[in-house]
Design a protein that fits this description.
It is globular and about 70 Å long. The protein is of the alpha/beta class. The protein is 35% helix and 14% strand. The chain has two domains: 72-110 and 376-482, Aspartate Aminotransferase, domain 1 (Alpha-Beta Complex), CATH 3.90.1150; 126-370, Aspartate Aminotransferase, domain 2. An eight-stranded mixed β-sheet has the order 3-7-6-8-9-10-11-5, sandwiched between helices. Strands 12-13-16-15 form a four-stranded antiparallel β-sheet. A three-stranded antiparallel β-sheet has the order 1-2-17, with no helix packed on it. Helix 4 runs parallel beside helix 11. This is 1-aminocyclopropane-1-carboxylate synthase homolog (inactive). InterPro entries: Aminotransferase_I/II_large, Ethylene_sulfur-biosynth, PyrdxlP-dep_Trfase, PyrdxlP-dep_Trfase_major, PyrdxlP-dep_Trfase_small.
């Protein structure tokens, strides 16, 4: 695209069966075959959107402040599926007809390994210093271990420094803290969309910061492109568009490996994105929470911390947490690495609200020290189990003829169920999501990730096989029912296509 995209459109990009077919081989080692063309009279996708998450909000409680009402509204509007799941959670013995959760990105494959390791005697230690207020940045012994851990697994060319490490209770807190200390209320970050939708809450609720979505689409335009590919050109257009609306953009958020796409940026792409940010004096927040969850051997992950030289080290901030790579979402451990001492100090000041207990800090340090267990026991087994689960769900989707993307990283597959939508609208996408939930399986719908094209869903596969089998059986039942309804409907030659169509092999 060589010109700024139109800023308003109601028609999503639609991939039509009559389009041209191209067989592509991406740099990530996945074969991608596309059938995609745009209607001659169809407007191009709006290439960006300045988010205002409370635009549709109206206060409904006389007991809350306006800020409290917004916070409650976020909970009411964004947590419906998760709350429903927790009220009717599947259990093999106690509730076999409960909801199977294929929507929440948690790794449930290695509880046996983690339980044994965390129950060993070296993890059970109490001393007075662990029961007192710590350095708000985190105990020095933990920050030293984090620096060594990230130096090794991120392949840093030089040892990372403990004084540049800040420890908080999870990446949600890190996003909130960074948004608060980097931006004024009403300022914004660029973020490629689709993206992990909870980031909207993380940056908005405390800091009042907005997101400018850089819309990516599934259309493949050449042999060197892939679906939902981020380019500097798209970043430039979104930044230009936000500036034209009077919105000050302070930074760029990158998720690598990506949620929900499973994409892994090449070293060249990372360099281009960082160079773009430096040109415009933007901070870059790099979320590498899945850095140890790349299970496909042909996929090479490059941490930002592996670069010989950062284009702008004072504006580059890297976060990681144990929740995904170690299947410990309940532990609430997250860490920031930044060479900007002012940013580190400001975030550390907020750690008094987001710190970890001393006992958890001790356990995490012990875990990071045990490199033999991580390298020889945990990571090989975790990757093997992720690979097996991914293979099973991939084969199920292929059997159903469902196009999908998955690059061999993370816990999820990005699947296109658009052919099951009577019309290519987000209303129909939501109705399909509710039919899944009524059939006792929870998925995540594309609109929750700010996907511009209706019909995409995220399926999480990082669960035990008997749960996956039951979950996919319920998915199949819903889709077969939808297909039967469509088959029974009166045919019409002028009927609109049922949604975006593509064929993407992992």
């Amino acid at each position: 695209m060589s010109t700024l995209c139109q800023k308003e459109t109601r028609t999503p990009a639609t991939c039509l069966g009559s389009g041209s077919t191209q067989g592509l081989h991406s740099s990530n080692g996945d074969d991608v075959e596309r059938e995609c063309s745009r209607k001659p009279d169809q407007k191009p996708l709006k290439c960006y959107r300045v988010g205002d998450p409370t635009a549709m909000f109206s206060p409904n409680s006389p007991h809350l402040s306006s800020r409290g009402s917004v916070i409650k509204w976020f909970w009411d509007s964004a947590e419906e599926g998760y709350r429903t799941y927790h009220m009717d959670e599947y259990d093999e013995d106690k509730n076999p007809n409960g909801i199977i959760n294929l929507g929440t990105s948690e790794n449930k494959l290695c509880f046996d390994l983690l339980t044994r390791r965390l129950s060993q005697s070296d993890m059970l230690w109490v001393e007075p210093s662990l029961l007192q207020y710590p350095d708000w940045r985190g105990h020095l012994f933990l920050r030293e271990e984090v620096a060594r851990f990230l130096s090794f697994y991120c392949k840093s060319p030089a040892p990372l420094k403990p004084e540049n490490v800040v420890v908080l209770n999870g990446c949600a807190s890190l996003f909130s803290a960074l948004a608060t200390v980097l931006c004024e209320a009403g300022e914004a970050f660029l973020i490629p969309a689709p993206y992990y939708g909870s980031i909207t809450q993380h940056v908005c609720l405390y800091g009042g910061v907005r997101l400018v979505c850089v819309y990516l689409d599934s259309e493949v335009t050449g042999l060197e492109t892939r679906p939902f590919q981020l380019t500097v050109e798209k970043l430039e257009m979104a930044l230009q568009g936000a500036n034209s609306e009077g919105v000050k953009v302070k930074g760029l958020i990158l998720i690598n490996p990506h949620n929900p796409l499973g994409d892994v940026y090449s070293l060249g792409e990372l360099q281009e994105y960082l160079d773009f940010a430096k040109r415009h004096e933007l901070h870059v927040i790099v979320d590498e929470i899945y850095l140890l969850s790349v299970f496909e051997k042909s996929v090479e992950f490059h941490s930002v911390l592996s670069l010989e030289r950062l284009p702008d080290s004072q504006r580059t901030h890297v976060m990681w947490a144990a929740s995904k790579d170690f299947g410990m979402s309940g532990i609430r451990f997250g860490t920031l690495y930044t060479e900007n001492r002012d940013v580190a100090t400001a975030v550390a000041s907020l750690c008094r609200y987001h710190s970890l207990s001393g006992l958890v800090q001790y356990q995490m340090a012990q875990l990071f020290r045990d490199r033999d267990w991580i390298n020889q026991v945990y990571l090989p087994e975790n990757h093997a189990r992720l690979k097996a689960a991914h293979t099973y769900v991939s084969e199920e989707l292929r059997a159903l003829g469902i196009p999908f993307l998955s690059r061999g990283a993370g816990f999820f597959i990005w699947a296109n169920l658009g052919k099951y939508l009577p019309e290519a609208t987000f209303e129909q996408e939501m109705l399909l999501w509710r039919r899944f939930l009524d059939n006792k399986v929870l998925l995540s719908f594309g609109k929750a990730f700010e996907c511009k094209e209706p019909g995409w869903f995220r399926l999480v596969f990082s669960d035990r096989m008997h749960r996956l089998r039951l979950g996919m059986q319920r998915v199949r039942q819903v889709l077969e029912s939808e297909s039967q309804v469509a088959a029974d409907a009166p045919s019409c030659q002028t009927q609109e296509p049922r949604g975006p169509r593509s064929h993407c092999e992992d």
